[in-house]
Design a protein that fits this description.
Length: about 375
């Protein structure tokens, strides 16, 4: 308690955020909380509503219904320029007629800063984002990574309570993108403020975020740590969107304390029985990660076996991705770290015996 008032424990609360455009529902009752100084990534396919949600947080888009609280304060009546949020655009939205210094200083010049204080603050921001020595350069003279840093400095110099980022790395090449991921995470920890980062790239989300929110068709499918989202997807959509998972569908045949047996089109599959058991006869999905399925001639009693036809191989540098056709016509993928220099396998359509452990299979899709 401070001064008799409760201190807000959350930087952001979205409560039932809904946005309709005529008959189209872009966002459908979004609930999301961001803790103090948390890095949250909002991830989903194109058209899922993530950019609309970010624009609502920035004050650029209105809601049809719902509330948005920043540190317990309702922002419904707060104009954009007075909101404690700043948005870093996908294309950076820098001013080409201004140099780096003036781009960074643009926001504070709208406020009550005197020139000497402003110059000191711009120099501090330039140091924070590694732009020393570039303050006199024109925007056209900068690389993609340098433009990204200018956009960040221009946003954070205004001391926002929450920084919003709309796919800011999408225009960068792969090498620079990876480097900037580390710099963004370092910057967020140095500032100690919440970052909300919109992306369709799961590698970006998983490498930086404390938690990830997965959106689909305007709804939140799952919120959790990167590890929880990757290893334990809670819905069919998340399982297919995240990582490289294989799904087998069928009806529950038997349930025991240790495992549940599912009757699928590809034969019986046994999966771990979790804390909550499905009902016999219920239709469920079994999720198995691509690196958990193996090919071998010897099997144990604790393994699932599936017959498949080898169809193709994708070389991915440190590993290979093998594609198989199942008897029911579905496709599955296997990730294999083959021996260096081993010749690629002939894709002759030969049958293969596949297996995976019961402990590597888990069930989703039941109530």
């Amino acid at each position: 308690m401070q001064g008799g008032k409760a201190v807000a424990t959350k930087d952001l609360e979205l409560i039932g955020i809904t946005r309709r455009f005529g008959e189209f529902v872009a966002l459908d009752g979004i609930d999301l909380e961001v803790g103090q100084g948390e890095f949250v990534a909002i991830m989903g396919p194109s058209g899922c509503g993530k950019t609309t949600l970010l624009r609502i947080m920035a004050g650029l888009e209105s809601t049809t219904s719902g509330r948005m609280l920043v540190k317990g304060r309702d922002l419904a009546a707060v104009p954009i320029h007075r909101r404690p949020t700043r948005l870093v655009w996908q294309d950076y939205a820098l001013f080409p007629h201004l140099n780096v210094f003036d781009n960074i200083a643009f926001g504070p010049r709208l406020g009550p800063h005197v020139p000497s204080e402003l110059r000191k603050k711009v120099l501090e921001m330039a140091d924070l984002v590694s732009l020393e020595g570039l303050l006199d350069r024109r925007i056209s003279q900068l690389s993609g990574g340098q433009k990204q840093r200018v956009a960040l400095a221009r946003a954070i110099i205004t001391e926002p309570e929450i920084l919003l980022l709309d796919e800011p790395l999408s225009a960068l090449d792969a090498h620079l993108r990876i480097r900037m991921q580390g710099e963004l995470r370092r910057l967020q920890q140095a500032l100690g403020i919440s970052f909300i980062y919109v992306t369709h790239n799961q590698n970006e989300a998983f490498s930086m975020a404390d938690r990830v929110a997965v959106l689909n068709k305007g709804r939140v499918e799952q919120v959790g740590t990167p590890e929880a989202i990757y290893h334990h997807p809670s819905s069919r959509f998340v399982a297919q969107f995240v990582g490289m998972n294989n799904l087998f569908s069928g009806k529950v045949a038997t349930v025991s304390e240790h495992y549940t047996e599912i009757a699928s089109d590809n034969g019986p599959i046994r999966a771990v029985t979790g804390s909550k058991s499905p009902r016999i006869g219920e239709t469920v999905h079994v999720v198995v990660q691509a690196d958990k399925i193996k090919r071998a001639t010897a099997h144990t009693s604790n393994e699932n076996r599936i017959n498949a036809i080898l169809r193709g191989r994708e070389f991915a540098g440190s590993h290979n991705v093998y594609l198989f056709d199942l008897p029911n016509g579905n496709e599955i993928k296997i990730v294999s770290e083959d021996e260096p220099g081993s010749p690629p396998e002939k894709l002759s359509g030969s049958p293969s015996d596949l297996y995976f452990s019961v402990r590597d299979a888990f069930i989703i899709g039941f109530q």
